[in-house]
Amino acid sequence: GSGRRVFSPAGEFREFSRRQLRDMERLFRQYDAGKDGFIDLMELKLMMEKLGAPQTHLGLKNMIKEVDEDLDSKLSFREFLLIFRKAAAGELQEDSGLHALARLSEIDVSTEGVKGAKNFFEAKAQAINEASRFEEEIKAEQEEKKKQAEELKQRKAAFKELQSTFTQ
């Protein structure tokens, strides 16, 4: 071989889950119209338009330049993944095209990672607890109303009984 190491996304980009890597690969392939394993300037232009964040020609060139390690003026899949790595690390300018790409791609690479998932499940559990507490309060109110209705019925019956003893 030429000594070129085969790129292993899961090996090199350990901060992403296999699912995230699959989503990124799907996105990459979707916009690699030439099916040459690269996203060139025109493909990137189309991608950004589809994502709803069209860029100027210069903007597109700067996006590529920011992650173009081999200086071929196009994005390999590995360079594409660098966009998400930089986004997750908070290394992209808020107003940059790459930031927009990472944000609009719907691939969640928030640096929260495991902590984020934990918070998500805690929030979900809390919501479930609040919902069941709410249901319990409603049940308690209903029980209380039933009890009051029953007591009222008994009082009326007792009153009627008492009344009948007087009217005889």
TrEMBL record:
SMART domains the UniProt entry points to: EFh (SM00054)
Keywords: Calcium, Coiled coil, Metal-binding, Repeat
Pfam family name, one: AIF-1
Positions of the EF-hand domain: 19-54, 55-90
Claim: Coiled coil is one of the keywords in the record: yes
Alphabetical list of InterPro entries matching this protein: AIF-1_EF_pair, EF-hand-dom_pair, EF_hand_dom, EFHD1/2
Chain segments annotated as coiled-coil in the UniProt record: 124-162
Source organism, top-level taxon: Eukaryota
A molecular function GO annotation: calcium ion binding
Keyword check for Metal-binding: yes
Xref: PANTHER family: EF-HAND DOMAIN-CONTAINING PROTEIN D, EF-HAND DOMAIN-CONTAINING PROTEIN D2
Protein name as catalogued: EFHD2 protein
Species of provenance: Cardinalis cardinalis
Gene symbol of the encoding locus: Efhd2
